[in-house]
Amino acid sequence: MKKYGSALGPAARLSVWKVLLLSVLTVGVQILLFLAAFWGWGSTEHITPSLEETVRVSGLSLAFAAGLVLVCAVLVLPGTERGAKTGYTLRRLSVDERVLVLLWGGLNALLLLLFWGVQTAAALALARYYLHTLPAEFSNHQSLFFAFSRAPYLHALLPLWDWLVMARNLVCCAALGLSAAALPFHWRHGRKSWALLPLAALAVIFFPSGMDNVISSAAGLMIFGSAIALTASNVWRCSEHEE
Amino acid sequence: MLELKDVKKTYLGGSTALDGIDLTIGPGEIVGLFGENGAGKTTLMKCVLGLLRYQGTITLDGAPVTTRNIARLSFATCEHSYFPALTAKAHRAFYQEHFPNFRAKRFEALMDFFQLPMGKAIRGFSTGQKNQFEVILALSQGADYILMDEPFAGNDIFNREDFYKVLLGILEPEESILLSTHLLEEVQHFIGRAVLLHQGKVAGDVTTLELEEQGRGLMDFVKETYRYQADRVSRALDHLTDRE
Predict the structure, then answer these.
(1) pLDDT (tens digit per residue) in B41-70
(2) Less packed terminus of chain B by CB within 10 Å, N or C?
(3) Residues of B whose CB is below 8 A from A85
(4) Which residue in A10, A95, A243 is closest to B67 by CB distance?
(5) How far B169 CA sits from the closest chain A CA (Å)?
(6) Averaged over B73-84, what is the pLDDT?
(7) Given a cut of 60, is residue A105 above it in pLDDT?
(8) Mutate which of B69, B77, B97 to disrupt the A interface (most A C-beta within 10 Å)?
(9) Going edge to edge, which strands form the sheet with B193-198?
(10) Model confidence over A200-236: pLDDT tens digits?
């Protein structure tokens, strides 16, 4: 197992700080969007918008979507052999390349969870900031809880009791992570593979949806779950029936 | 002993890259692999390393090349196979982890000889330094059979000369080298055997000792094998001049 960890080292070195940087940049954009919506609204309408409305108008979910797509791109980069055919070295190691791809997918999934976690922390901080700026009669201890229950984007970030959405998000991270690892694997073996693109698009569309909609969440869960099974079996089969 | 028996490789498009190659390379041999572009030199090496599927058999001391014995083969390629974002120091740690016979002392000596920095990411190296580092990794892996595919492309003549000398000085008796290059005249005093490929087949296989005994140079042997027509340039020029 130590050899597999070592084989993943170069990819991890390349990905971790880039994902962290993208997470922070996305948060920076979200802060700007949120403050622009919050203060812009206040100066023109002379009313206090609800937190849910501010989140919706500020387009935080769009910034999240853009960040997620960029993170997926960053996860693919270490395996794309820019500047050198690193695959020649990876394929000469005394490790099973298929197992390596699955572990690489796991690493990618953890990095996607990191992105999700940073976005959740940022959303919580923005929500707390919002509530602090309101007069005491407009906010209380439950305001935050209500906001994360009612705003689709906030709910998707922190689904609280909604285990279906939580499961969907986790499976989505695993599916995207595995696809991001499988894509360069297929390229290394001279095959075309673009499964990550539709999956990332689906993730972006599905993410802020599903609140109070069991069918939507279940559909997302099934699609991403199937993607994991298909990608894993494809990696296994392709390696056995290589050209 | 690295043994290839009736190795054939046909690409998906239908082009035949290797057409029944039989070749044996013993311990300690330094073999030059020559041939025109498209003769099958790179394909042959990739088949040996298991990077391409092929027909026929390739064995290492009688056993097929698998993840169990692949560490006995190393590869230096002009396409480069290092990790561009890693430093030389990180490569050393990586290779030590994956290749139990990694020659750390040789790695450090060669890094020192070529004055390559240990703490700089390889992508920051010059083209010549990248080639040197690629070859250093292949030589330091601790492999019994070192495959080199045009490893000096982009290096100046002084670098190459130095490298041949160093190489001859550091190789252990059991280490074998299969060197694919177009620089025939440069490597003729360095290799012990020349294998010529032509259209996916072995067109010639001779030791430099045999050539010496016959009083022939490597270039003569190559020209004869490929039926090189020395007058083709003058004929072409005459033809062109007549037309005008």
Answers:
(1) 999 999 999 988 899 999 999 999 988 899
(2) C
(3) 77, 79-81
(4) A95
(5) 26
(6) 92
(7) yes
(8) B97
(9) B73-77, B145-149, B176-180, B30-35, B193-198, B201-207
(10) 888 888 777 666 678 888 888 898 899 899 999 888 8
Which is it for the CA torsion A128, A130, A136, A140, positive or negative? negative
Buried b (16+ CB within 10 A) or exposed e, B65-88: beeeebbbbbbbbbebbbbbbbbb
Tell me if B47 sits within 8 A of B58, measured CB to CB: yes
Share of chain B above pLDDT 70, in %: 97
Residues in chain A within 8 Å Cβ distance of B123: 83
The number of beta carbons lying within 10 Å of the beta carbon of residue A105 is 25
> Which tokens sit at A169?
């998000």
Which residues on A lie below 8 Å from B51 (Cβ)? 88, 91
- Mean pLDDT along residues A69-79: 87
Pick the residue from chain A with its C-alpha nearest to B90. Answer: A10
Interface-testing mutation among A3, A6, A82, A88, with chain B (most B C-beta atoms within 10 A): A88
How many CB atoms within 10 Å of residue A112?
25
Residues whose CB is less than 8 angstroms from the CB of residue A96 and which lie 6 or more positions away in sequence, other chains included = B67
Instruction: Count interface pairs A-B at CB distance under 8 A.
Output: 72
- For a pLDDT cut of 90, what percent of chain A falls above it? 33
Strand segments (E) across B52-113? 55-60, 63-64, 73-77
From chain A, pick out residues whose CB is under 8 angstroms from the CB of B87: none
Using a CB-CB cut-off of 8 Å, the residues of chain B touching A91 are 49-51
Rounded distance, CA A184 to CA A230, Å?
16
Q: How far apart are CA B67 and CA B71, in angstroms?
A: 8
Instruction: Characterize the bridge pairing of strands B145-149 and B73-77.
Output: parallel
Distances (CA, A) of A76 to A4, A18, A112, A114, B228: 18, 12, 12, 16, 48
Give φ, ψ of B201 to 5 degrees.
Answer: -125, 155
Q: Which of B2, B30, B25 is nearest to B187 (CA)?
A: B30
Q: What value of ipTM does the predicted structure carry?
A: 0.85
